[in-house]
Amino acid sequence: MKNVALVTVLHDPSGKILSLFRRLQSEVEALYSNLYITISNETNDELCLALERSHFNIKVIPKKGAAHARREVIQFGLEGDNHYYHYCDFDRLLTWIEKDKTELKEVIGDIPNHDFLVLGRTKEAFDSHPTEWRETENITNKIFSLELGQQMDITAGTCAFSRECSRYIQKYSEAAMTDAEWPMIVHRIAGMKVNERLVNGLAYLKDINGENKEVSDSQKWVNRLKLSYIISETAISTGKALKPLDFHTIDTSVHRETILAFRKGSFIASFGHDRDFGDEENYVQWVSGKVRDFPTGFVMVYESGEAIGQLELQVKEFEAEKIGYINLYYLIPERRGRGYGKVLHDYAMEFFKKHHIGEYHLRVAPDNHQAISFYKRNGMEEMYPEVDGKVIRMRGFIT
């Protein structure tokens, strides 16, 4: 369809959808003006080759979860010039074409009439899903609907939106799951209209839409329950006014155990472990010295009296020029993906402005894709790897 691009994601180590894609490839290609897909680096080689030979624009990414893959494909799709985008999990799309291609074609034609269109399931389509899906998704959809003030089914794995909406999503999306986050970004932050259309084509076919690996019945329920909780919490928190944060200069005699825990937490978030943390006392002494030089740069972050984060900001020389340097952005896991990162970033920018700094740097682990994505959304760019490839130096400019 004119001006509507497909953006989709795929993680299929076994290649279970290969034969179905080959059979439906020409029909997929005929439906959209452009096709964008992010593929996990664990996806079946033969399936990857089939996609490379198709009309898809392809980006291979590390397996970092559905939310990461979805954000990557939005950014990828924005490299084109389409006015509207249809996001759909790839297995869902093939199922839809198989079940009711005419309906899908009508939906694509309707997309330009909406800012953001939630594509939900009719009762018949919803009832085709396993019991553990229906029971938990009913709860998720109920919570989202209470927050929006309108009944919707947001857990079907597909939605559509304008290019303007996609830019808001690109800028603000950071949650662990995007099903409720994206429409709430559009509703609460962009102030744009979220509509819904129910369809029959989003039925469940076990061979296509089922689990990629065998798990017990009880584990299936646990997995779906976890998803329901994460998506439901996101529906409540996304785009709501944050509680004000307080920034207090670190006092190592008071904050010693907290800064050690937070700094080790940053190692775990970046590298998956804290084995390379080094000597605790050396770190505490280093912080004490930096506090004397930059009392407003080395700070604890408080929300309602609770320590939820830590910042380490300084000014230093780099290639004979003074730059700002971020040693640490840290938020406790419970506050990540809720907009607090932007508050910390804004504080850092004000710190550098007060020191008359025009350029700032930081270093990040190459596998910390969520952090890299956050930094890029805030205008930073990668420079080059350092420390034998263990980190990437990034830079940004104060505007």
Folded structure, characterized:
- The structure is a single chain.
- This protein is of the alpha/beta class.
- The protein folds into two domains: 234 residues, Spore Coat Polysaccharide Biosynthesis Protein SpsA, Chain A (Alpha-Beta Complex), CATH 3.90.550.10; 153 residues, Aminopeptidase, CATH 3.40.630.
- Helices cover 45% and strands 24% of the residues.
- The chain has 14 helices and 14 strands.
- The strands form two sheets. It has a seven-stranded mixed sheet, with helices on both faces. The chain has a seven-stranded mixed sheet with strand order 8-9-10-11-12-14-13, sandwiched between helices.
- Helix 1 links the parallel strand 1 and strand 2.
- Helix 6 packs parallel to helix 10 and helix 11 crosses helix 12.
- This is N-acetyltransferase domain-containing protein.
- GO terms for molecular function: acyltransferase activity, transferring groups other than amino-acyl groups.
- InterPro entries: Acyl_CoA_acyltransferase (IPR016181), GNAT_dom (IPR000182), YpeA/RimI_acetyltransf (IPR050680).
